[in-house]
Design a protein that fits this description.
globular, about 15% strand, alpha/beta, binds pyridoxal-5'-phosphate, six-stranded mixed beta sheet, four-stranded parallel beta sheet, 15 helices
């Protein structure tokens, strides 16, 4: 069971290991959201993290834990964009070759960021699952190390450092709201915070369009979903069928799951822009969307929401601003 495989100590060590690469992001209060919700709400700004998303934490922890031999052979991964960008960044920084497989659905801004960092970009497959199959083949062929986007203890420990940072700044926290896809972010944060504050209420949020983890939790087993285009592109994709860690960890630690619509996601992005002067991508804004739409069933008095990324494509930003101006 994952509980024995991962300890709070591993997350502290990850925090130390990644300090030279990842940023300790601010936790800011949101007076507007606090008024809407009627509780104290703080936002964890991973949208201003290095490479624009939290994924740098797990990628740095994983790549920095590889042996000399593994580093020499290089790393490979599959990504909906942000993970690939993070792996490329860390690989370039420490001098490791990286191959990044992405499906055709990944936005162009994310592809460009990956190639600009010197990694080899392989665009293959109609969706994340197809890209993953191809990455598995290439990994064997090239003898590289797979840096899985979520189902890996080093990745989970890296993402868990967000939980430690939140508790240090906000020890009164009683509710944590986290975007949920493959569950690496959620597993790390929930494990870290529940180890320190066992009574914390953990809420995972996905989009209505293709919520693989939420459907799998409901079914009690990993189910296939149909991928549909969504503003929360960073949350798209299925779970790996041979999932070892994140599915059981999410089953064990998540107390509530919430689904949000495309309109609610767009409104949340607009809200962050208008009230906080920050750009949050769709997948990063689902926690705010869950609060604004009043879809969270159980809310404590002290809530932290993880804004997981800020890599919003320009066209999407333009549309959200135009729609927001009209709605005003
Ligand atoms: C990857 C990603 C997520 C989801 O993380 P998982 O570990 O797959 O659950 C959420 N938000 C953003 C911006 C991401 O890039």
């Amino acid at each position: 069971m994952p509980k024995e495989d991962l300890s709070l100590g591993d997350i502290y060590i990850a925090g130390q290991r990644i300090t030279a690469i990842a940023r300790r992001t601010p936790l800011v209060d949101s007076p507007n959201l606090s008024t809407v919700v009627g509780s104290k709400v703080f936002l964890k700004l991973e949208n201003i993290q290095v490479t624009g998303a939290f994924k740098i934490r797990g990628a740095a922890n994983k790549i920095l834990s590889l042996s000399e031999d593994e580093r020499a052979r290089g790393v490979i991964t599959v990504s909906s964009g942000n993970h690939g960008r993070a792996v490329s960044y860390v690989a370039q920084k420490v001098g490791v070759n990286a191959t990044i497989c992405v499906p055709k659905t990944v936005p162009n801004n994310k592809c460009q960021a990956i190639t600009a960092l010197g990694a080899e970009l392989v665009i293959k497959g109609e969706n994340a699952d197809e890209a993953m199959e191809y990455a598995d083949e290439l990994q064997v062929e090239r003898g590289m190390t797979m840096v899985h986007p979520f189902d890996d203890l080093e990745i989970i420990a890296g993402q868990g450092t967000i939980g430690l940072e939140i508790v240090e700044k906000f020890p009164k926290i009683d509710t944590i709201i986290v975007p949920l896809s493959g569950g690496g972010l959620m597993s790390g944060i929930a494990f870290a915070i529940k180890s320190i504050i066992p009574t914390i209420h953990v809420v995972g949020v996905s989009m209505e369009r293709g919520p693989a983890m939420v459907e799998s939790i409901k079914a009690g087993r990993i189910v296939d979903i149909i991928e549909t285009p969504t503003l929360a592109d960073a949350l798209a994709g299925g779970l790996n069928k041979d999932n070892k860690y994140t599915f059981p960890m999410v089953q064990q630690y998540v107390d509530e799951t919430v689904l949000v619509s495309e309109k609610e996601i767009a409104e949340a992005v607009w809200f962050c822009l208008k009230h906080h002067n920050i750009i949050v991508e769709g997948g990063g804004a689902v926690g705010v969307a869950a609060l604004l739409s009043k879809r969270v069933q159980k809310l404590g008095g002290n809530i932290a929401v993880v804004l997981s990324g800020g890599n919003l494509p320009l066209q999407a930003l333009r549309k959200i601003i135009a729609d927001g101006e009209v709605a005003k």
